[in-house]
């Protein structure tokens, strides 16, 4: 296992949709170990594989001490109720902006044994599930911001680069 370096915007791996995991092999097992170790650090809620430079559909989470992972996740349900809280990202360091997300999310995927997995939650867990699935689709949270807020965020981001 290894603590992996986090890729930051404008790294193109963050803007490229990730490929599904076709075969669970030693490489995928190692990836999951690295995702779990890398997310297990103060202030980290979630980590997608492309954030450590691997373009495969997998992510880990660390919500209130609950650490886990899912392979080939897809959002299958979002609640109607919305939350509008501050959101940040390891790949966009130092920027926090209000981001509207569903207050409930359910994701389905598989585990390392190929068994079906369902992960669901409200509040921070729902935000994390949506945020990480966005990463796997080649999006960062800035893409979800309201128009005016997104402009301000992009100006701030460009000033930091």
Terminal Cα separation, in Å? Answer: 31 Å
For CATH, the homologous superfamily is named as Peptide deformylase
Q: Biggest sheet, open or closed, and with what strands and sense?
A: 5 strands, antiparallel
Query: What is the mean predicted local confidence, pLDDT?
Result: 96
Task: List SSEs in N-to-C order.
Answer: HEEEEEEEHH
Topology, number of strands: 7
CATH architectural label: Alpha-Beta Complex
Tell me the CATH topology.
Peptide Deformylase
Low-pLDDT segments? none
CATH domain class name: Alpha Beta
Helix run count = 3
The percent range for helix content is 25-40%
Cross-sheet strand order for the largest sheet: 1-2-3-6-7
In what range is the share of β-strand residues? 25-35%
Alpha-beta classification? alpha+beta
CA-atom Rg in angstroms: 15 Å
The total domain count is 1
What overall form do the CA principal axes indicate? globular
What labels describe this entry?
alpha+beta; 161 residues; two-stranded antiparallel ribbon; single chain; 7 strands
List the helices and strands and how they pair.
Layout: H1 26-39, E1 46-48, E2 58-63, E3 66-78, E4 82-89, E5 92-102, E6 104-110, E7 116-122, H2 124-136, H3 147-160
Short description:
By secondary structure, the chain is of the alpha+beta class. The chain has one domain: Peptide deformylase (Peptide Deformylase), CATH 3.90.45.10. The protein has helices at 26-39, 124-136, 147-160, and strands at residues 46-48, 58-63, 66-78, 82-89, 92-102, 104-110, 116-122.
């Amino acid at each position: 296992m290894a603590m992996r370096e986090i890729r930051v915007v404008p790294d193109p791996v963050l803007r490229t949709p990730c490929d599904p995991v076709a075969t669970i092999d030693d490489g995928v097992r190692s990836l999951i170990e690295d995702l779990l170790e890398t997310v297990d650090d103060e202030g980290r809620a979630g980590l997608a594989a492309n954030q450590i430079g691997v373009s495969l559909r997998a992510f880990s989470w660390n919500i209130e001490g609950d650490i886990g992972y899912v392979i080939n996740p897809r959002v299958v349900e979002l609640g109607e109720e919305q939350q509008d809280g501050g959101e940040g990202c390891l790949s966009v360091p130092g920027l926090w902006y209000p981001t509207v997300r569903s207050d409930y999310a359910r994701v389905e995927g598989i585990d390392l044994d190929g068994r079906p997995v369902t992960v669901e939650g409200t509040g921070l867990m729902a935000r994390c599930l949506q945020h990480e699935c966005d990463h796997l689709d080649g999006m960062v949270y800035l893409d979800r911001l309201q128009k005016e807020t997104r402009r301000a965020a992009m100006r701030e981001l460009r000033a930091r680069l």
